[in-house]
Amino acid sequence: xxxFTYIPSIKILICKTCRKAEFGNNIRHHLRQxxxxxxxxxxxxxxxxxxxxxxxxxxNQNDLHRLPYPIPLGPALPDLYEANSNGFRCTFTPxxxxxxxxxxxxxxxxxxxxxDLSHFGKKGRPAKGKATSTVHPHFRSHVYYQRLFPxxx
Length: 153
Hints:
This protein is of the alpha+beta class and 153 residues long. It has 3 helices and 6 strands, in the order E-E-E-H-H-E-E-H-E. The chain has helices at 27-32, 43-53, 103-112; strands spanning 4-7, 12-15, 21-22, 84-90, 99-100, 139-145. The strands form 2 sheets. Strands 1-2-3 form a 3-stranded antiparallel sheet, with no helix packed on it. A 3-stranded antiparallel sheet has the order 5-4-6, covered by helices on one side. Strand 2 (12-15) and strand 3 (21-22) form a beta hairpin. The radius of gyration is 20 Å and the shape is elongated. The model has no long low-confidence stretch (mean pLDDT 87).
């Protein structure tokens, strides 16, 4: 069975069953886990590993710097899960391409990378009757995104 798809534009392997990116060096381990559950030494595992070696791909976490930055915009990759529409894109600088899945993550990004503390405001509950702004000048909401690796660095 053909387990993986290679995407040359971003140099990743995507598992067709799990619909997530996988490091090349992790193929053997991945195929022995759920939902594949192939026994150790199975011919399909070695065939998949040998097949992947013919490509210039991301082999491990240390190779992540080889991903194109920013990842080219375009249509969603059909081999991954559908794109989410509830992302937050950093607009602090034009050269920042960070997209986060939650306001907590984008706020952490703004604080840790851009040292922006302006959106944290004062501590405590806002005064009664005082409107709070829901628009933030440093990120845009409702951005479509796809995750390559469900658990990232």
